[in-house]
Amino acid sequence: MEMLIQMDERKIKTVADISALLAGTDQADLKLQGSKDDIYAWVERTLNRLRYGRLSKKEKGQVLRYLIQLSGYSRQQITRLITRHRETGHIHRRQRTTNGFKPKFTREDIILLAEVDQLVDSASGTTIKVYCQRAYELFGDQRFARLANISVSHLYNLRANNIYRRCRRVYTKTNPVQVPIGERRKPRPDGQPGYLRIDSVHQGDMDKKKGVYHINAVDEVTQWEVVVTVQRIQEEFTIPALKSLLKQIPFEVKGFHSDNGSEYINRYVAELLNKQMIRMTKSRSRHCNDNALAESKNGAVVRKAFGRVHIPQLHAELIDSFNRKHLNPCLNYHRPCHFPSIETDAKGKQKKRYRVEDMMTPYEKLKSLKNAEQYLKPNLSFQWLDTIAKRYSDLDAWRQLRNARRILFKTIFGQNNEAA
Q1: Domain spans, the chain
Q2: Burial of 217 (0-12, 13-18, 19+ CB in 10 A)
Q3: For the whole model, what pTM was predicted?
Q4: CATH number for the 183-337+395-419 domain, one of 3.30.420.10, 3.40.190.10, 3.20.20.140, 1.10.10.10?
Q5: How many whole angstroms separate alpha carbon 214 and alpha carbon 232?
Q6: pLDDT, tens digit, 9 for 90 and up, residues 100-128
Q7: Given 3-state DSSP classes, what are the helix, strand and coil percentages for the chain, each rounded to the nearest 5?
């Protein structure tokens, strides 16, 4: 194959000609066309014609630029070719004809290793090596002639081979975890209060020490919300907290829905709910919005009230007292919530709309239900609950909450600073 040069190479006789060419021509148009053998021969011919070994350092730099530009090779490759020309006087392409190292262990050896691993349940590498040695030396199995002398480290290399993996590939269907506590389904309150959504909020870690935990329960229909605070999510703390939570709800609780965390899906919580005839449900797989109401309230209520700062566990009782006296009454009697109005089009498709005129507090929503008195606990009445709702105005209630929270935080973090 002949080399095509887009220039008259015969005019390039000196380094000055090269400098003039590089300075006065668009270098992007300078290139050689040909095979690798042709380019190697051109480099050798150019170095001989210009007597490269006798040039000055500056002139060698110009020649180097010229060779790089026309050949398209990197500076390192051209430098290697020049070094080879200086040592031998010629530049010939070195064609690699070998296929590298011949593998010592064959495909049959890898398949045999996979068979041994399968028989002995993938024992350690040293154990497998001993099996192979015993098979060859003690029992005379010639198939293990090469594996008998394998090193332990290379045995693990063979285990990473694709042939080995294809032999040992096993597909196991995922088995769902069966916990016979609670029912996997979405609660259906049918417009009746008493179906709680519950979730936990952790108040941060510091120096490998856990903070307090908030248990946040929200009624699906009325959005009645109760927050209790515990030191740890263990039955010795959660069971009393859940009893206190259920007492703070003025209507009968019929359903208790949580995610699949062990703090709620356990026999202690199940026994507590069974005694009070409360049906327990838990979130379904691949239905991330089953407990979305409680999770949205975690950010909109709990995080706004307490932030994300670490609060030591020893302050759990103090915070829970604040919840009962200020936070929970404020949320249920003085905090308006959005309630959707459902519109159905001509095709039967339902669409939820959240209008300002539909906003009301959880207590007002409870009272607005048809025959609302039937949902109250036996010892409660709306007359008594009205006295709680009208004791303070909305803004006065929130003002008292902010003052109480400021005192609470000053007590907590003031004690921490003194302890530090």
Answers
A1: 4-88, 107-168, 183-337+395-419
A2: buried
A3: 0.59
A4: 3.30.420.10
A5: 9
A6: 677 889 999 999 999 998 888 888 889 89
A7: 50, 15, 35
